[in-house]
């Protein structure tokens, strides 16, 4: 197994520099498909201590590909499973064609990750983590850029993430033993990479026009709290959902421990009864009864993976940090109002 340090050295960059053109394309992709979540390919190159994201292209919606294939009269005889496989095949072909077209016109065509719209409350979803692990194993410098375009302010929520080297090392060994996650901390799951926006003044102007079509001239002081009100409610709602899911996951582990303890007791009692019975049969000169390991009490119980627990714990911590930040900002405004 490679050490965590070796995985860390696979990303020797201080930050990710995103061209403003990429943000405009991402926003347009989202706007054209709202409210459906979107994702796409990030393209760029590494320059010195930074990873530059210079271009991108959108991924098509798989449901649209599936619908198109289902209407093809030459594919009417395919089963639903075969149609899904065909849609996946067309999805891959689309990416390859796009990369080829960009290469032909001398545009940066090196894959450096992908982007997707995301509620940051769902950032630690198992599917996202699995996808990022697979991506990093293929493209070692890959990043996932998540953005949340629906906001009450004129700022776009944009963050870049990579899988932590500790978790990547565990994945590289396979997941046959869930106990490997026991020594993993929540902060080692996802690592945020600093982002710098190139031509940030231009994208700032674009975002202000996009999110602020007009500016009211008669705002009261307490109107400044309205921009954070819904976001705080949003974060609190996600926190409650994450806590419920975490509680349910912990209850599953408690049930496993209880079932495991009961099974061990049953095995011990059964083995002792069989031993005593065989001693009696031996005294009577009768053949001994072998210990049958195929009965239910000797079947190994599935050990629940602790990765979901770490993921949910990190989600809760992230929500709490966001709520604290928003609350601190509002309290600071109150302090400025009443303590000039």
From TrEMBL:
<dbReference type="GO" id="GO:0005852">
    <property type="term" value="C:eukaryotic translation initiation factor 3 complex"/>
</dbReference>
<keyword id="KW-0648">Protein biosynthesis</keyword>
<dbReference type="Pfam" id="PF19445">
    <property type="entry name" value="eIF3h_C"/>
</dbReference>
<dbReference type="InterPro" id="IPR027524">
    <property type="entry name" value="eIF3h"/>
</dbReference>
<dbReference type="Pfam" id="PF01398">
    <property type="entry name" value="JAB"/>
</dbReference>
<keyword id="KW-0396">Initiation factor</keyword>
<feature type="domain" description="MPN">
    <location>
        <begin position="16"/>
        <end position="167"/>
    </location>
</feature>
<dbReference type="GO" id="GO:0008237">
    <property type="term" value="F:metallopeptidase activity"/>
</dbReference>
<dbReference type="InterPro" id="IPR000555">
    <property type="entry name" value="JAMM/MPN+_dom"/>
</dbReference>
<dbReference type="InterPro" id="IPR050242">
    <property type="entry name" value="JAMM_MPN+_peptidase_M67A"/>
</dbReference>
<dbReference type="InterPro" id="IPR037518">
    <property type="entry name" value="MPN"/>
</dbReference>
<dbReference type="GO" id="GO:0003743">
    <property type="term" value="F:translation initiation factor activity"/>
</dbReference>
<protein>
    <submittedName>
        <fullName>Eukaryotic translation initiation factor 3 subunit H</fullName>
    </submittedName>
</protein>
<dbReference type="InterPro" id="IPR045810">
    <property type="entry name" value="eIF3h_C"/>
</dbReference>
<keyword id="KW-0963">Cytoplasm</keyword>
